[in-house]
Amino acid sequence: MSTRPLGIEGAHVVMPPRFDDERGHFSPFLLDSQLHEIGADGMFALRQGATSVSRAGVARGIHFTRTPPGTTKYVMCTAGRVRDYLVDLRVGSPTRGVVESVLLDGHDLTCLLIPSGVGHAFHSLLDGSRMVYLMSGEYVPEDELAVDLYDPEIGLDLPDPREVVLSERDRNAPSAAELEASGMLPDYEESLRADAMARGSTADRTPAIGSAL
Q1: Marked catalytic residue, from 74, 85, 133, 188
Q2: Closest CA to 149 of 73, 87, 78
Q3: For residues 62 and 120, is the Cβ–Cβ distance under 8 A?
Q4: Which of 99, 68, 86 minimizes the C-alpha distance to 188?
Q5: Using CB atoms within 10 A of its CB, is residue 192 exposed (0-12), middle (13-18) or buried (19+)?
Q6: How much is the pTM?
Q7: Were both Cys, which of 2, 97, 142, 186 would link to 67 (CB 3.0–4.6 Å)?
Q8: Known catalytic membership, residue 12
């Protein structure tokens, strides 16, 4: 397993090894010891696992969780192919406003470790693209927020919106500037505390059942 840091503080690409034989292949996509080595202080306490399947042309995001409580994510594409985007939305972050784009596909199972306060989005490039999410928090509707995918201040490299399939929620999402003016963007220090708690806290949170993916 190899890793590399992204230009967003705390975000990493994790590239699992792949072992092929006559039966197929095996790939260990998560090693807690590896996360220690990249300064992530080990895997967060897992509170939700989820999956989404998207046809070609679907885009989802830019999604983030209100902080607190914040949500750390570990995501991968297990089938198909997507262009994944991370956006540092954390007010006060040394990498505030940085955008990273990574191609994920079901062949190599490249994973992304996404800190609290960092927005996540992706554009499906093939029918049947399946994303898997491991998360430090369960879904709470009022805590799940979205930023406009086509916010010009963020500038994601996406096709014309007329060629992209969006949910009504994502189509009507506010800009980052609007969210900041209303105090809704995550604070950097609060996000760091949320990540630390996710790795060490056993505090109970009992949310509603649902999905914002």
Answers
A1: 133
A2: 87
A3: yes
A4: 68
A5: buried
A6: 0.89
A7: 186
A8: no
